[in-house]
Design a protein that fits this description.
- The protein is an alpha+beta fold.
- The strands form four sheets. Strands 4-3-2-1-5-6 form a six-stranded mixed beta sheet, sandwiched between helices. Strands 7, 8, 9, 10 and 17 form a five-stranded mixed beta sheet that branches. A four-stranded antiparallel beta sheet has the order 11-12-15-16.
Length: 405
């Protein structure tokens, strides 16, 4: 596969011209950014107010129109928060000034994008509260979802970010290999090992590799692997024993500004002969994963529009056709970014119906899983979508790791 080209060469400040071009292509009159007290982290990040240098205890609005200069509405005691952004800013103090200011801000507009998702279908995007939406609509303005705008201007990776992702991915694979080797050695030598103690070893290797994360890795054996969000603790854990499933789920990024997460899951068996139900379930999720990847690859090569729900449906059809419909508990994948769950499209037609397009420059996981009373299996890889190609950024697990002496 050809080497991908990152969609942007460097992370830039808010590019008003590019946003206006995107608004015109979507037949929108503007994009209205709004936040109160950090309620809309997407808007705060786009406006540059999320790095702790600004006190944002009052409502602010920033409108980027499809034509003309941007304009803002900001509280008088925080009037300088929007100064770095282009365009005229109006200060308000009392609620009557807020009302009249919002009316002027929206004058002449018919359709604006906001961080809104109809019926909260995509809760990660739906950041505008119902009352604010009512205030906008009361002024005769239709609100549409900013989902693909957010992707284009918030969730795309630069070439440097792609490099940080690939470096983090390589480190995660090394940690995964060390963890399986440590488990095999402990079993061979008869040394007690628990989910928690192995997790803590892995956390130490994160430090060695220069990775940071919002959580220690998942180490799950047997029935615990059947819980997608199981996490061992110092109080709650199971021993790593022979003849059982050992699932590792680990995610991290480098600690440099702008670095992007990688997120992988691999499954092993701590005995010489995995039982048939386990091998069949694992083979099925591998087939589902690769079906999803092929769909993304084909769409990218053809320059064809592809939406998140379509990829999820393709993967889930494989699982359901094999008789596993009752053992699916989550979507096929999620966006990756500076947070492990990014602001881009998710591969989801199960928990939600994600209509967002898989845009060039975005990265995401592909991670079908099946969950049972006595075990669970999941295979997770990362994919970067370029304009005419899709790149899987690490090795794909094709069979169960043999974790035994």
């Amino acid at each position: 596969m050809a080497e991908p080209r990152a969609f942007y060469t460097e992370r830039m400040a808010l590019d008003v011209g590019a946003i206006q071009q995107a608004l015109r292509s979507e037949r929108l009159d503007g994009w209205l950014l709004y936040d109160f007290h950090g309620s809309n982290p997407i808007a705060s990040h786009l406006a540059g107010l999320d790095h702790g240098a600004h006190m944002t205890t009052r409502r602010w609005y920033y409108l980027i129109p499809a034509e003309g200069s941007p304009r803002g509405l900001v509280h008088a005691i925080e009037r300088h928060n929007l100064d770095p952004l282009p365009g005229e800013k109006t200060a308000y103090a009392g609620r009557q000034e807020l009302e009249s200011g919002l009316t002027r801000l929206l004058s002449g507009l018919r359709r604006v994008a906001m961080e809104y998702s109809p019926e909260c279908a995509i809760p990660y995007l739906s950041r505008v509260d119902a009352g604010t939406a009512e205030a906008v609509r009361r002024r005769g303005v239709e609100i549409v979802s900013s989902g693909d705008l957010v992707q284009q201007f918030e969730a795309t990776w630069t070439s440097d970010q792609l490099a940080t992702h690939r470096s983090a991915s390589a480190a995660l694979y090394r940690i995964k290999d060390r963890a399986f080797a440590a488990a095999a050695m402990a079993l061979r030598d008869g040394v007690p090992l628990t989910e928690y103690s192995l997790q803590q070893q892995m956390a130490g290797w994160f430090v060695e590799e220069g990775l940071v994360s919002d959580s220690a890795p998942v180490v799950a054996v047997g029935a615990n692997a059947g819980n997608p969000h199981y996490l061992p603790t110092a109080e709650v854990f199971q021993p790593v024993t022979k003849d059982t499933v050992l699932l590792l789920d680990l995610w991290g990024k480098h600690g440099t500004p702008g670095a992007v997460f990688a997120d992988i899951t691999w499954v092993g068996f701590t005995g010489p002969e995995p039982p048939a139900p386990l091998t069949r379930a694992f083979a099925t999720i591998v087939q589902a994963r690769d079906t999803a990847v092929r769909l993304v690859e084909e769409a990218a090569a053809e320059g064809r529009e592809l939406r998140g729900w379509e990829v999820d449906r393709a993967a889930r059809t494989v699982l359901e056709s094999a008789g596993y419909a009752q053992h699916i508990l989550h979507r096929t994948g999620h966006s990756l970014g500076e947070s492990v769950h990014g602001n881009g499209v998710h591969l989801d037609d199960y928990e939600t119906h994600d209509e967002r397009r898989i845009l060039p420059g975005t990265g995401f996981t592909v991670e079908p899983g099946l969950y049972f009373d006595t075990f669970g299996v999941r295979t997770e890889i990362n994919v970067f979508r370029d304009e005419r190609a899709a790149l899987v950024t690490g090795a794909r697990q094709m069979e169960l790791v043999k974790v035994y002496c």
